[in-house]
Amino acid sequence: MPVVHYDSEAVEGEALPPTRRRFTRRGAWISFLLIPPIAVMALFVVYPILSALAYAFYDWTGLRREGFVGLENFRRVLFEPPYAAITWNAFQHNVIVFFVLMVVQNGVGFLLAWCLWRELPGARFHRVAVFLPVVLSTVIIGYMWKLFFHPIFGVVNQLLELVGLGALAQPWLGQSDTALGALILVNAWAWVGFPTLVFLAGLQRIPTEVLEAARMETDSEWTITRRIVWPLVAPSTTVVFILLFIGSFNWFELPYIMVGLDGSPFGSTDVLGLVFYRTAFGNVSAGVQDFGLGSALAVLMFLFIAVFATGWTLYLRKRELDV
Amino acid sequence: MSRLTLRQVRKSFKQTEVLRGIDLEIAPGELIVFVGPSGCGKSTLLRCIAGLEEITGGDIALGDRSLAGVAPSRRGMAMVFQSYALYPHMDVRGNMAFGLKLMGLSSDEVEARIAEAARMLQLTPLLDRKPRELSGGQRQRVAIGRALVRQPEVFLLDEPLSNLDAALRSEVRLEIAKLHETIGGTTIYVTHDQVEAMTLATRIVVMRDGRIEQVGTPRELFETPANTFVGTFIGSPRMALLKARAEGGRFGIEGSGDVALPDAPGGARALTLGVRPDAFEVVPEGQGWGADVVYTEYLGTDAFLYARLGDGTLLSVRTDPAAPEHATGSRIALRPRAGGLHYFDQDTGHRLAA
């Protein structure tokens, strides 16, 4: 049986034992501090998600809700032409975006972090420079790179001609082969500072003596990086991987600004975010608008991201604890 | 096994000269201790020998092979770091195996060496644990084991006991001494603790300001310190330095009178007398230097009193713990026992031949 100790003062003068009283006051404070953010969250996050979930089960005419149709909207988005082809095409692009960014953005990020960590010449300047695009607005970045990629006036093609590679100059955003790649590279350019910063923090947390102990055992920089440095940095990658995953499947602003709502040319840059927006809110060119289908898409995206991100986070966290 | 030779070793970090010409010969199998106050360059010297720092002058050679430009991993040395520096993501076995596998040993050989080291250091039940699951003392043993399995020509230990609590420290110190006896490899041990140095070393290297002050066995350093620095650094409580004037066999200290001492070096001169706490005796008034008792300390097996001479010098005296304590503030007379005196030049601090 647990023994409860009251301090003498409380036993004499107060009805409640001091611990319980403290808890009550603490509870009041916690509620006081939590209620406003929960209310805001509920209003602007939970409610829209739940209502989207509800919308997805109804038939819509313009903005007017018609009858309950069950899973019909989901079936159409996933399996019925022409929606199915559009959805799967966009999903494929999201998958490509995710894997390429995973390799390019995070790979270059690690490389940059490594260079900054080893204090190669200019590290001080580059530590700031690398992170600068991250704080720029996506609108600015998208617009700027759209100009850079301009087939005639664009800096990219002019530079290629300047170094004698004029043959490689092409309308980067105007042809199906290169448009998605160009978008992905712009995204990598803009966001590489984030993984760099996280990796750099991870690298700097490795004790110097551990690295020196490794240097006493091998003179191969590669072995030390692969066997000692990377395993010690890896746990800090969880947040980088998860945010990249969520970002890749929610990708919207950059393609919207650079190639427009249609994912032009010819849907070669179409991604789920664009499809959802077009379907739910309509488009000047398409004119078709269906809230039900759009909501169904949104719900599917949400479920896909939530399930994978949660599972992956749990897995990576477990690995973090192992180290 | 080969001899380690340091010739005029220098090291500067930008403008700051940390090592100012170190000459040292270390015989195979010796346990050499570098000791000195913090900032004296002892750790830097060890790191230079390890190759973790490049020397800016002079030469280090193992046998007749110069180590200039040789990578740390190819010097035939293993190091135990102050923080142990275990690889946190590998278990104990992995920590020891990492370097061995890179040496190209067969996995049988790797296993055999690890088993042997684990047996010697009582690590066998811990082989599958990660460093964070080990206590400080156990990590320490793993760090030593990781060095042992490499079977290096030279062991380097950088303040290996400073992260352990006092009780464990003397225990591990004993273990290191025993290990050195069993394995017999050349060992260089860095510490700022003169007790560690005295108990472990075959020879001690006392350093200050990037220079070697004296090299010798613990006994040599204690009995014939080369200068006032070594005199006060080795031994606890520290040796008292008294500014005295010798004239006609009598040693005068300002404000404390003078004392006749037998083995005074000839001629009238000012000199510094070094007297250890146990070389003082309290004598009746008039037969020694007058001093005021400042503080007394009773430690059970030992007792000390701290006294101030007429010229303001504070000194410690070992007294008989059984005898009654002297009251703080009382006046006593002190005189050094015959043979317990060290003579130093008052300007240079160098030892004077008696």
Structural commentary:
The complex is a heterodimer of chains A (323) and B (354). A two-stranded antiparallel sheet of chain A has the order 1-2. Chain A has helices at residues 8-13, 18-55, 72-79, 83-117, 123-135, 138-148, 155-162, 176-191, 193-204, 208-215, 221-233, 238-249, 253-259, 272-281, 291-322; strands at residues 58-61, 64-68. The longest helix of chain A is centred in the first third of the chain and has 38 residues, at 18-55. In chain A, helix 4 (83-117) crosses helix 9. In chain A, 71% of the residues lie in helices and 3% in strands. In chain A, strand 1 (58-61) and strand 2 form a beta hairpin. Chain A has 323 residues and is mainly alpha-helical. Chain A has two domains: 1-40, no CATH class; 73-322, MetI-like (MetI-like fold), CATH 1.10.3720. Chain B has 354 residues and is α+β, with helices and mostly antiparallel strands. Helices cover 24% and strands 34% of the residues of chain B. Chain B is built from eight helices and 20 strands. In chain B, the strands form four sheets. Chain B has a six-stranded mixed beta sheet with strand order 6-7-8-3-9-10, with helices on both faces. Chain B has a five-stranded antiparallel beta sheet with strand order 13-12-11-14-20. Chain B has a five-stranded antiparallel beta sheet with strand order 15-19-16-17-18, with no helix packed on it. In chain B, helix 2 (92-102) crosses helix 3 and helix 2 (92-102) packs parallel to helix 4 (136-148). The radius of gyration of chain B is 24 Å and the shape is elongated. The two termini of chain B are 40 Å apart. Chain A: This is Carbohydrate ABC transporter membrane protein 1, CUT1 family. Chain A: Belongs to the binding-protein-dependent transport system permease family. Chain A: InterPro entries: MetI-like, MetI-like_sf, UgpAE/MalFG_permease. Chain A: The chain crosses the membrane at residues 29-58, 95-116, 128-145, 188-207, 228-252, 291-316.
